[in-house]
Amino acid sequence: MKLPHRRKFLHLAGGAAALPVVSSVARAQAYPTRPINIIVPFPPGGNSEGIVRFLAERLALSLGQPVIVENRAGGAGGSVGAKFVATAAPDGHILLLSTPGPLVVAPKVYKNLGYDPAKDFTPIGTLMSIPQMLVVNPAVPVKSIQELVAYAKANPGKLSFPSPGYGTQPHLLGEMFKLMAGVEILHVPYRGPAAAVTDLLAGQVQMYFDTIGLLIPHIEAGKLKALAVADEARDPQLPNVPTTIESGFPKLQATFWIGVLAPAGTPTIIVNKLNAEINTIMKTNEAEAILAKLSARPKVGSPEDFAAFMAAETQKWAAVVTGANIKAE
User: Fold this and answer.
1) How do residues 218-239 score in pLDDT, each as one tens digit?
2) What is the pTM of this model?
3) CATH superfamily of 131-230
4) Which of 182, 285, 300, 329 has the greatest number of CB atoms lying within 10 Å of its CB?
5) What does DSSP say about strands 207-211 and 225-230: parallel, antiparallel, or unpaired?
6) What's the CA gap between 76 and 322, in Å, rounded?
7) CATH topology of domain 33-129+256-323
8) Residue 293 to residues 135, 286, 290: CA-CA distances in angstroms?
């Protein structure tokens, strides 16, 4: 006689246990319910500034909530901002906009960052990519990468290359070049690209890898000599400059890219919603016009595409860090 009461109790208990699951799904479906913060782990300015502001404005319109861009600079390789997002609530209201540094470079160069890119983040999608390129000061008597290698071997100790900082992509690309070419060229780290370019123009350093958008004004002014684009195709703005593939260095490639991530554990429904909105925004004519000023291209895809891309980038730069014996200073 007591069995029906027991069944009723179990049924009610089961329903109560399911309530947290149902409520979490409901919250995800209602997303967003308050303002969204996009954390940029670097100071204001730089290649990402224009596009992230545009993205925030468009996301606010499509999602119906304010989207705030917040710069949280500091730490090794942008680790302060990245760690803040890694430890935030996984509800889609705190996001990370990151370059390669905090995600695939810093973890291989620095210890105790306080986060693991592979475990603490959920990739949402990439926004854009800008090819890197190799330039030299006009005083260096070379017209190609092959001539640069020959000159470096014939003049040991005469060449140096700057970077915007230790462990940055231009630094690693320079080290990759040294490994592939078998040459010794001194690395000179600076605090940001502006100081590096200033000394390059003055001849204090002789060669440099950085984004096309940053270097093209100096190339067009005749103040720098372009040797190669570190990408699969030539750049439309520099049709006469060969790629590194054409120059005999098929693996000497790198792009400066930007992607958006959420804390690990963010519901799939939120991740997919953000990915769809971001892809739509990045395909607009307005976005492409902003990117064109940077010599950048939209880079859209699924969260899975971004995860696979990050894994490949991590493997690629880890090999350079190991091969060049790069350690935090």
Assistant:
1) 999 999 999 999 998 999 899 9
2) 0.83
3) Periplasmic binding protein-like II (3.40.190.10)
4) 300
5) unpaired
6) 18
7) D-Maltodextrin-Binding Protein; domain 2 (3.40.190)
8) 19, 11, 6
What mean pLDDT is predicted for residues 22-41? 84
- Check for a shared fold between 33-129+256-323 and 131-230: yes
C-beta separation of 103 from 167 below 8 A: no
Residue in the block written with tokens 């979490």? 24
Task: Using pLDDT thresholds of 50, 70 and 90, give the confidence band for residue 1.
Answer: very low
Alpha-carbon dihedral 50, 166, 162, 213, rounded to 10 degrees: -20
Tens of pLDDT, residues 261-270:
999 999 999 9
| Long-range contacts, stretch 51-59, CB < 8 angstroms, 24+ apart | 51/127, 51/128, 51/258, 51/287, 51/290, 51/291, 51/294, 51/296, 52/97, 52/258, 54/281, 54/286, 54/287, 54/290, 55/127, 55/278, 55/281, 55/282, 55/287, 58/281, 58/284, 59/277, 59/278, 59/281
Neighbours of 238 (CB within 10 A): 19
> What tens digit of pLDDT does each residue of 177-212 get?
999 999 999 999 887 788 999 999 999 999 999 999
Domain map of the chain by residue range?
A: 33-129+256-323, 131-230
Number of H helices, E strands in the chain: 13, 10
Instruction: List the beta strands (DSSP E) in the chain.
Output: 36-40, 67-71, 94-98, 121-136, 160-163, 186-189, 207-211, 225-230, 255-263, 297-298
